[in-house]
Design a protein that fits this description.
By secondary structure, the protein is α/β, with parallel strands linked by helices. The protein has three domains: about 30-180 and about 240-420, Alkaline Phosphatase, subunit A; about 190-230, no CATH class; about 425-500, Arylsulfatase, C-terminal domain (2-Layer Sandwich), CATH 3.30.1120.10. Helices cover about 20% and strands about 15% of the residues. A ten-stranded mixed β-sheet has the order 7-6-5-4-12-1-13-14-2-15, sandwiched between helices. A hairpin with a 1-residue loop joins β17 (about 425-430) and β18. The radius of gyration is 22 Å and the shape is globular.
């Protein structure tokens, strides 16, 4: 009798621990799938006609597809920082695109989406690309315990690519250890001076199966030269063709292992980032070269997650989000015929620019949300930003952020779930300098800089004069009307200056 009473008491306590404070309904699982360099026009439900993404399309048909959703920066590290911390990365030095041996830029103990959800009773995990640094100021110990990582900022589990596929070290890290590392073959990594124990793409192009178009000519791993130098760790090296399969399997396993209580999974794919090396089942299938093939591979990964949720009867109570860290880039360092084989495909769709750009092609992204019958399928034009995930998830789980947490994050859950079509009043975008969209008007700060990003030929949006575009009538940002609207230019410039000077936007 006593044991039965204890069992009932524990079960009741568990139910309360997994329930929002305001309505006592079970908390939804949350799966956030974060693509890499996926363009607004790269999937068929956003208008692509040269390639078909059936799983993403199926998700859009079951959920809400946003047409005015934004990441915070047009490159990956700052977008990821903002997404996880609720703070614009441009407020902090050292949050640009990181090297593979950079120390952690989210300091242990910092409040993140993961720690907020963990506090609400979620089991939290991250699988896939990290690129936010690892280790203390001296960098990660690749041959020992790797500290100052996901486990120190709210995640219970991680299986990650430390930086990017085109940067060393080319190994997976599970929790605090490099996977399959042989202690007799220690890893050494450098981005400051050559480690010449291994051949480089610059000196031995005959060893390459993919040649660089610019940069990316240092240590060769799996027939591909990378950014940075690495030696050792041969038993731990990944095979590029298998990355999507490996990390998708880990994401599926996390869901299976934690299906009995609320979980948060941040599944950050490598696709469609360079080097684009699709698995055999996708190679050549898009007829657009490796870039098109890895779009199909990403779509497959989304389908695997959806099928897993369906098979475990979790779909109805799981918020599933698919979005991207920034806009698209075609030639980003390797000769993979991405430019030559576009065949009329427009990765940014109707938008101007792409990755690295102040134009909307850099920061307006694919954004689809599904939550069973809690979301009415359709299309939303609400202005939303990834920086708001932290405050929105806090609100969803009945929590209130402290004053020093998520300083730029607002609770936009009603817009994310389609309960309102309004969304934000304004959104800030970043690519070296800042721009702001407010009431359909977009203002881009003037300043020096090149008009094209290196060899990618992406329009950066840099100009010596102010730029003003009406995003309602000119989504492609073709007509700069700043000269005809000086008062509006001054108003938006002052508004942007205040956002910068205040140091936060949520008070």
């Amino acid at each position: 009798m006593k044991n039965s009473f204890i069992t009932i008491l524990l079960a009741t306590a568990f139910q309360w621990s997994c329930t929002p404070f305001w309505n006592k309904e079970p908390l939804p699982n949350i799966v956030l799938i974060y693509a890499d360099d996926l363009g607004y026009g790269d999937v068929s439900c956003y208008g692509a006609t040269r390639i078909t993404t059936p799983n993403i399309d199926r998700l859009a048909g079951q959920g809400l597809r946003f047409t005015n959703a934004h990441c915070t920066s047009s490159t990956c590290t700052p977008s990821r920082y903002s997404l996880l911390t609720g703070e614009y990365a441009w407020r902090r030095s050292g949050t640009g695109v990181l090297t593979g041996d950079a120390p952690a830029i989210i300091i242990p103990g910092r409040t993140t989406i993961a720690s907020v959800l963990k506090n609400a009773g979620y089991t939290t995990g991250v699988v896939g690309k990290w690129h936010l640094g690892l280790g203390p100021s001296t960098g990660a110990d690749w041959n020992g315990d790797i500290t100052s990582g996901p486990l120190d900022i709210g995640f219970d589990y991680n299986f990650i690519i430390p930086a990017t596929g085109d940067r060393v070290p080319c190994v997976f890290v599970e929790n605090r250890k490099v996977v399959n590392l042989d202690p007799a073959d220690p890893i050494k990594v450098s981005f400051s001076e050559p480690i010449l124990t291994e051949p480089t793409g610059k000196d031995h192009p005959e060893l390459l199966k993919i040649h660089p178009s610019h940069g990316h000519d240092m240590t060769i791993i799996n027939g591909i030269s990378r950014i940075g130098y690495m030696s050792g760790g041969k038993s731990a090296l990944w095979v590029d063709e298998n990355i999507a399969e490996v990390i998708t399997a880990k994401a599926v396993k996390f869901i299976e292992n934690h299906r009995k209580r609320p979980f948060f999974l941040y599944f950050s794919t490598h696709d469609i980032h360079v080097p684009r090396v699709p698995a055999r089942q996708f190679a050549g299938k898009s007829r657009m070269g490796p870039r098109g093939d890895v779009i199909l591979e990403f779509d497959w990964s989304v389908g695997q997650i959806m099928n897993t949720l369906d098979s475990l009867n979790l779909s109805d109570n799981t918020i599933l989000i698919v979005t991207s860290d920034n806009g698209p880039v075609v030639d980003d360092g390797y000769q993979d015929q991405a430019v030559e084989l576009l065949n009329g495909h427009t990765p940014s769709g109707p938008l101007r620019g792409g990755k690295y750009s102040l134009f909307d092609g850099g920061t307006r992204v694919v954004f689809i949300v599904r939550w069973g019958d809690r979301i009415t399928p359709g299309v939303s034009s609400a202005l939303v930003s990834q920086v708001d995930f932290m405050s929105s998830f806090a609100g969803l789980t009945g929590q209130k952020l402290k004053a020093d947490e998520g300083p730029d994050s607002f609770n936009q859950m009603d817009a994310i779930l389609g309960r309102t079509g309004k969304g934000r009043d304004w959104v800030v975008e970043h690519a070296g300098r800042l721009s702001v969209i407010k009431n359909d008007w977009k203002f881009i700060e003037p300043g020096p800089g090149t008009k094209l990003q290196g060899n990618t030929n992406t329009e950066t949006g840099n100009a010596e004069i102010p730029q003003l575009y009406n995003m309602n009538s000119d989504i492609g940002e073709k007509f700069n009307v700043a000269h005809h609207n000086p008062d509006l230019v001054n108003e938006l410039a002052s508004f942007l200056k205040k956002i910068r000077d205040d140091g936060r936007t949520r008070f």
